[in-house]
Amino acid sequence: MNRRDFINTSTQLGVSSVLLSGISRYAVAQKSDQIQSIKQNGPLIIVFLRGGADGLGILSPLEDPNFIAARSPQLLFTPTENPVLLDGTKLFWHPQASSLSELMLSGRLVPWPATGIINGTRSHFEAQEIIERGVSELQHLPDSVGMMTRIASGKMNPDSFLFSGGTNLPRAMQGNLPAIAIRDLQNGIQFPGGLTNLAILSQLASVDKSHPASAPIQKTLNLLFNIQKSLDPSINVDFKKIKPYESQGKTPYANNNPSVGLRSIARLLNANVPLQYAWVDHGGWDMHEGQPVRMNNVLGQLSQALKAFDEDLQAQQQNYTLVVLTEFGRRFRSNGSYGTDHGHGSLALVMGSNVPKNKVMGRWPGLTEKDLDRGVDLDVTTSYQDVINQAMRWGLAA
Question: pTM (2 decimals)?
Answer without folding.
Answer: 0.89
